[in-house]
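Why does residue order matter? Because the sequence determines the fold. Keep that principle in mind as you read this record.
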Amino acid sequence: MMSFKDGTRIILGELERTLGAVDEAAVERAIALIGDADKIFLHALGRAGFAGRSLVMRLMHMGREVYVLGETNTPNFGPDDLLIICSGSGATKQFVDTATKAKGFGGKVLLFTATKDSPLGQIADAEIVIEAPSKRQSDSEFASIQPMASLFEQSILLIGDAMVLAMMERSVTGEAMFRRHSNLE
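Structure:
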């Protein structure tokens, strides 16, 4: 029987391997896209969506104008805007259609994916490839002891947090970010 400590060691080991394989140049391109964007939109579903929401929440704390597609307060998308998509397969039709539309408006697309050479990767201006299984592990060249896309989703969260740390060093303090934290809770 696997203990809690065994599980954490395995998960942290998988994360260390997976995050160690992330292309730093791709992350820098992603940070540049975020820095250049007027408005930032997120399109992601499920647990990957929760991880993506964590990133856009921190971007809001940094003073950026951010939105989650599907929410009633989402404004129109313009030519200087950025669409962030989190898609393990990189082929979800809904995401491909939205990315194509964003590019048609003259915007940029940033993709977090577990699949190299995906349809979304061909559309994206920058992509961060995470060497982790997507939902159906049998369809992936990567393996994880964790179920479904857990490693991919965890990696989005940690990559986003590492990106925020890099951006903070360049532009904003934690204290300034805290002043933008929700005060109605």
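The beta strands are 39-44, 65-68, 82-87, 108-113, 126-129.
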